[in-house]
Amino acid sequence: MKDCRSVGVQAASLYASYEFYFGKRKSMRVPYHAFHNALRILRALDFHEVHFLTDAEWEKFRDNPYDFFITTSNSNSSLIWQAIQKRQPTEFKEENV
């Protein structure tokens, strides 16, 4: 027989997860605006902000930043994401980036 307290803890955890994913986030408009703004920033990044790219990578990035971001290495995309986050307004910035 299951301990009633563990069922209660599980139910509270499930409810908290539901609230986070469906309740609180549903009313937030930040994810769309943050994503839209990040795409704009990605397109506008300058060479000094992505100085870690080689010349050949920079040319590919400059020609099509969206495709480059998706197809480049994880280390490059992570550094590009950090550059994007530096330009994001405070309300759109991700924590721990």
Report on the architecture of this protein.
- With 97 residues, the protein is mainly α.
- It has a domain at 29-92.
- It contains five helices and no strands.
- The protein has helices at residues 4-27, 30-44, 55-63, 65-71, 74-87.
- α3 (55-63) crosses α4.
- The longest helix is centred in the first third of the chain and has 24 residues, at 4-27.
- The protein starts with a helix and ends in a 10-residue tail after the last helix.
- 4% of the residues are buried.
Q: What's the layout of helices and strands?
A:
Elements: H1 4-27, H2 30-44, H3 55-63, H4 65-71, H5 74-87
Helix pairs in contact: 3-4
Write a short abstract of this structure:
With 97 residues, this protein is an all-alpha fold.
Low-confidence stretches: none
Number of helices: 5
Range of helix content? over 70%
Secondary-structure element order, N to C: HHHHH
Largest sheet: none
Q: Structural class, please?
A: mainly alpha
Shape: elongated
Radius of gyration: 20 Å
Strand content: under 5%
Number of strands: 0
- Cα end-to-end separation: 45 Å
What is the residue-averaged pLDDT? 81
Please tag this protein with its features.
97 residues; mainly alpha; elongated
